[in-house]
Structures are given as structure tokens and as C-alpha cells.
Amino acid sequence: MRLLWILLKKELRSFFVSPVAYVVLALVMLLSGYSLRAALSILERGPSEGSIVQWMFQPNWFWLSYFFAFPLLTMRLFAEEKKMGTMETLFTVPVETWQVVLAKFSAALLVYGLLWLPSYLNFELIRWITAGQVVVPGGALAGSYLILAFMGAFNLALGCLASSLTSNQIIAAVVSFTLSLLHFLAGLFIMVLGRRVSESFVDIISYFASMEHIRTFSSGLLDTRPMVYYSSLTLLLLAFTHQVLEFRRWKP
Amino acid sequence: MINAKDLTKRYAGRTAVESLSFRVEPGQIVGFLGPNGAGKSTTMRMLSGYLPPTSGSASVNGFCVFSQSLEVRRSIGYMPEMAPLYTDMRAKEYLRFRAELKGLAGAAMRRRVDEVMEQCSVQSVRRRLIGNLSKGFRQRVALADALLASPPLLILDEPTNGLDPVQIRQVRELLRSLRGRQTILLSTHILQEVEALCDRVLMIHQGRLLADDTPAALTRNLRSAQLWVELQADEAKAREALAALPGVRRIEDPPSSEGRDPDWVRLMLRLEAGQDPRSSVSEVAMREGWALRELHLQPASLEDVFVELASMDRAV
């Protein structure tokens, strides 16, 4: 536990001494500002079925920020240690590989959580400016952030794995971006295929349809299936990352 | 302290280390000597538990490097080649982070960090970013890191690489001051370093152990002492007379004959082990009436030993 905390502190520190965290934060703030603007303009047109929270997490702007965040946050984690040779100093002190993996992942997750803070402040700002005329439903808000945390954990774990496979940060970023995008697009099959396919196929696809998940949660509905889906995948990917790093010690 | 048995490491299509067996007793300073690419770093990586051996086994402080990796890591201070460090950290901050990882904490940790910074003379750069430090300082920060937890064994991969002569002397002094308290295995391709510092030399060439002895015994037992002779004589005659002397193995041409006095003949005699034919050379010169103006015995250096061993190895 103590070692985990030491490693986590160091990882968080290196996020904030390099420009990475600030660049990502600025990017996400900008794009989530655009999403909010889009949401507001929908509401302006007249009465709407969805709340401002639902509209906020629908536009393309939102998805753009979502996909850029993960590779930028994770590409450095292991690739840089490999490149610099610090992997060797790190794994010749008494730390377990899983402690390193967990510390790096948690640091990325915490920074990722921070990314959504400005959007929350935006909601509060709107509530304040419009003196409560625009209703920001608390349940929907909580649900949105909950599923964002689960989806984030999954994509960050994917990024960790990509970073552990190479010593080149660019390759790590590209691999992580591509895999995240593929996962997302697979979930879009529903939209493309519509009702032309059998019900059971739609059921399977909806397990990994991120867009569907966020639609459900941002309307304030909590569904345990996506939560289980994302958390088990996260664990699996972190276990893979652990194995990739351990492989060095077993390779004859 | 270290017990390596038949340590072998093969990379795809290349054998880096081949059945290396040696022991290092507690308290010794042992030099790992070999040209670049001889397998020194690979062996050190295996001993630190970073890489597994392809076959063979090794134990450090009684723990197996493969199955008891954490215990081994607690027993060693390892400084890898090229001194990799986190360039975005400040020197002191880095050392504190490393000290915490190695289990030090609180006031004791801070005191120890100050101590090793003092020992390695990096106090003056403690607030500077490691990325902005010169090679010499980085090297010493990495050395300070290895010393942090006062481990019983130090494994140092080319600790004086990139240092200037003054710094090299400082580092050697530092290592010498640790003699007896800590066991040190250091690698180098600089021969004087081994001669100046080590109790024992492990010579390694193309992944194989060539010799394992004290520096003095190695230079004594190998037939590599040279005798330089300069005479005013007919070259063929001189060669013939000197080659016949007891203790002379062969006569070699001096490396350079440029700018040489045409009347004088300068020869280099390779001697048999432990022989000193200087007096017989002067007797021959007197008898033949040759003027003698140089007679100089140069004891074998480790370099000669090394070259000799390496060439013998190739012949086998």
C-alpha cells in the first residue's frame, strides 16, 4: 500500500510537470464548451424531451474530446520508461509489477477524472446564470459521470496495454486511439444496421455500444450491465499489461 | 555473496553470455573486465534479476535471482549502464523517491539522502533538473541511488563512464572507502581502474570467462613482461644473440621505428613468466662491444594479459 502511494504520487507529479495534463485539460475544456453550446442551442429551439445533460453528451464535439484524451494520457506511461531505460532501475528495487501497473493506471484515471471537472462547473454556472430556469437534473448528471468513469477506466487500461507493448510513445498513442475507436465503432453497428438484424444480435452489440450506454446513463437510468462490462474489461486489460511487463522476467 | 553457476544468456541467434561460473566473497571488490559487448552488462542484468538466464543459475546473498527476485533486489544496489534517470525530476527529489521505494522513510530517509549526496558530491546540483545535468553528474546521481539503502552488494555497470579524471579519482576513493563493509561488483573496460581498485578480476571475452584471479597474480603468471633494449649493433646479429638468451621467448618489432637513429637498433623482447634477463643482456653487449643505451623492463600490464588471453581464446 505504501509503495503504491509512493509510485502514484510520482506518476501524478510527472503528469503535471510536463505540459501533457494541461494540454489535454485545455482541449477537453474547449470541446466540452462546444458541446454545451450545442446542447443549449437545441434547448433554445423549443421544448425538448431530453435534459441539458443528455444533449451535452451527445454531440460529436463530446466524442472528439473523449477519444483524444486517452492516448494522450496513457502513451507515456510505460513507453517512456522503456525508452529512457528507467524500466531497469524501476524493476530492480523491491516493487511488484502489479504495484507499478496499478499506480500508473490510477494516476491516469485521476487525471482523467479531473478533465470532467470543468464541465461540471459549466453546469453549475448555467444553473446560476439562468436562475434555475434550465433544469440540470442531478440524477442524470451523476449517471453521466458514473458511466464516463467506467468507460474512461476501460479506455485508459487499453492505453496502458498499448504503452507497455512499445518503447515509442507515438506508436502507443496510435494503437490506443485505434483500438478505442474500433470499440466505439463496433457499438455503432446498431445505428447502421437498424432493425434489419435479429433481436439477439442487437442485444449482443448493445453490450459494447458506448453511445447507447451514455444515452441510458445521462437520462438518469443506472444499468449494471455496462458497469460490469467495462470494469471486467478494465481488469482484463490491466492483467494483460501486467503479463506483458512480467514477460521480460520469464523470457528465456 | 554472489554464486553464479553456468550462467548463459542467448538472444535470438546470438549468445551474449556462455556458461559463466564464478563466486564473489563478501567484502571483496571485484572487477568485471572486458571489451564492449563482451557480456558484462547482460551478466549484471541477470544478477540483478532484471533478465532471466537462458540456463544456469545464480544466487545473490543466498537468494535465487530468478525465484526470489524481491529478496535479491533488497540485497543489492544496482546502477545500470548509461545511468538511466527520470529527467523531469530534480536530483534530490529523485533520490528521495528512490529512497522511499527502497523502504526508507521520514527523517532517516532525508538524512540518508543528504549523506549519499555528500558522498557522491552532487550536493551542488540537488535542486537542478536531472535532464539539465552533465553526464558526470548524472552518473554520480545514479551512483548515489545505488548507495541509498546501504545494500550488502553493489552492482555497478561502468560507474566511472563519462567522468573526468578528477571525478574518476573521487569515485574510486569512494568505492575504496566502502571496502570491507559492502561487496562491490563493478564492470569496466578500463584496465587501470581494475588495477587501482579491485581485489579480483573477472576477465570476460565474447561471453566467456577468460580469467578469475587477483590483478597481481594475473600479471605475474602470464608471460607478457617486456624488455626494451637499444643497442648500437648490426640488427641481425643482435637479434640472434638476444634471442638465444635464457628467459627470452621471442623478439618483437617495436610498434614504431619512425625518427629512429639509423645506427641504433631498438628491440622489444617478450619474456618468459617471472624471468629477468637484464644482466645477461648487458653481458652480451659488453662481450660483443656493443654500446647499450636503453635497458628497460616493463612489467606486464593487465592490458597485455587481456590481449594475450583473448588471442589464446581465439586460437582455441
Question: Which secondary structure elements does this structure contain, and how are they paired or packed?
Answer:
The complex is a heterodimer of chains A (252) and B (316).
Chain A: H1 2-17, H2 20-44, H3 52-56, H4 60-74, H5 76-84, H6 86-90, H7 97-115, H8 117-129, H9 138-164, H10 169-193, H11 199-205, H12 210-218, H13 224-250
Helix pairs in contact in A: 1-7, 2-4, 4-7, 4-9, 4-10, 7-9, 7-13, 9-10, 9-12, 9-13
Chain B: E1 2-11, E2 14-24, E3 29-33, H1 40-47, E4 55-60, E5 63-64, H2 69-75, E6 76-79, H3 91-101, H4 106-119, H5 135-147, E7 153-157, H6 165-177, E8 183-188, H7 191-197, E9 200-205, E10 208-213, H8 215-221, E11 226-232, H9 235-243, E12 248-252, E13 265-271, H10 278-288, E14 291-298, H11 302-315
Parallel strand pairs in B: 3-8, 3-9, 6-7, 7-8
Antiparallel strand pairs in B: 1-2, 1-4, 4-5, 9-10, 11-13, 11-14, 12-13
Helix pairs in contact in B: 3-4, 4-5
What do you see in this structure?
- The complex is a heterodimer of chains A (about 250) and B (about 325).
- Chain A has one domain (about 1-250).
- Chain A is globular, with a radius of gyration of 20 Å.
- Chain A is mostly helical and about 250 residues long.
- Chain A has helices at about 1-15, 20-45, 50-55, 60-75, 75-85, 85-90, 95-115, 115-130, 140-165, 170-195, 200-205, 210-220, 225-250.
- Chain A contains 13 helices and no strands.
- The longest helix of chain A has 27 residues, at about 140-165.
- The two termini of chain A are about 30 Å apart.
- The model of chain A has no long low-confidence stretch (mean pLDDT about 90).
- Chain B is of the alpha/beta class and about 325 residues long.
- Chain B folds into 2 domains: about 1-220, P-loop containing nucleotide triphosphate hydrolases (Rossmann fold, 3-Layer(aba) Sandwich), CATH 3.40.50; about 225-300, Alpha-Beta Plaits, CATH 3.30.70.1340.
- Chain B contains 11 helices and 14 strands.
- Chain B has helices spanning about 40-45, 70-75, 90-100, 105-120, 135-145, 165-175, 190-195, 215-220, 235-245, 280-290, 300-315, and strands at about 1-10, 15-25, 30-35, 55-60, 65, 75-80, 155, 185-190, 200-205, 210-215, 225-230, 250, 265-270, 290-300.
- In chain B, the strands form 3 sheets. Chain B has a 6-stranded mixed beta sheet with strand order 6-7-8-3-9-10, sandwiched between helices. In chain B, strands 2-1-4-5 form a 4-stranded antiparallel beta sheet, with helices on one face. Chain B has a 4-stranded antiparallel beta sheet with strand order 12-13-11-14, covered by helices on one side.
- In chain B, α4 packs across α5 (about 135-145).
- The longest helix of chain B is centred in the middle third of the chain and has 14 residues, at about 105-120.
- The chains are: A mainly alpha (about 250), B alpha/beta (about 325).
- At the A-B interface, α1, α6 and α13 of A face α2 and α3 of B.
